[in-house]
Design a protein that fits this description.
Belongs to the 'GDSL' lipolytic enzyme family. This is GDSL esterase/lipase. The protein is α/β, with parallel strands linked by helices. It is built from twelve helices and eight strands. The protein has a single domain, classed as 3-Layer(aba) Sandwich (Rossmann fold).
Amino acid sequence: MPCETMRCWVMLLFFLVANYSHYCVLGVSQVPCLFIFGDSLSDSGNNNDLPTTAKSNYRPYGIDFPSGPTGRFTNGRTEIDIITQLLGFEKFIPPFANTSGSDILKGVNYASGGAGIRLETGTHLGTTISLGSQLTNHRVIVSQIATRLGSHDLARQYLEKCLYYVNIGSNDYMSNYFNPQFYPTKRIYSVEQYSQALINELSLNLLALQDTGARKFVLVGLGLIGCTPAVRNSHGTNGSCAEEQNAAAFNFNKKLKALVDHFNNRLSPNSKFISIHTALNNRDGFLVSDAACCPLGCIPDQKPCDNRSEYVFWDEVHPSEAWNLLNAISSYNSTVNPAFTYPMNIKNLVGCEIKRDLEFTDKTTSQLSATE
């Protein structure tokens, strides 16, 4: 029987991933640790205790997550949650706001809902943890890892084997540039100038992250922000996407790809950068792609739709777990496609040094077990 539905394709993709994982992972994670930087697309609870309206630690958020609401801005797992599982981690990476002890050796999630590359982005909602502040938090963790491993040199050797996932930038448009009532950026920059300013600032943060020992980077491009229900509704586009917002996202993504090339050509041969992009222009199999399963702001205890797996969007901005699943599997295990994963997928990025990484990780774990 031909595979005609999205669920069928996802099952086939899972079969391919499972076969690769069995062949490659050997019962342990493919990298020793994973560090996550970003916004609400990756936040797993860092905003819960912040004075901000950008929160999701209440039902119906988390309605399909095993432990219920956690601060994830979707009904179940985020895209990076699923990638974490595909990488072979037994547990999700904990948020910086709620991590301690040896947990930090597996990685930390610094992402913050409403945050952006720019410091001011999202501040009209309340306190946010910008990318620069997330990097400051990472330095704290790096220092703690150095203490646990016995020296900064050992910490650097360990951190060089880890994966660094950076998914941020949407709010710099949706909660900054295209919000002129709160921010002056649209009066100061053209779309081209603003995209370049964002890339320049992102570049500085990535170089600073590299200075802490980071070597394997996943940089996530922007989705079609003009196609989110929130933007469609606010612009009265009668169901069509807002082209100005989408053009801005395309402009940013083009520059992000060029940044990947620049870093791969100029930095140490041990440093590898890839970019991945959403499949939002390929919504076959999803019955609803222009409305939210949990509309009107997804207020506390609101009843969402029953057919959540058929919706691209969970609320008016954030994707559903079903959509996250499709993108996560494609990011991890897709065939090389410059329009989606460039110049390789996550599997290839982490696969080239798995045996050496695991040897170092096993040795480090044994040392820690003897001292704790």
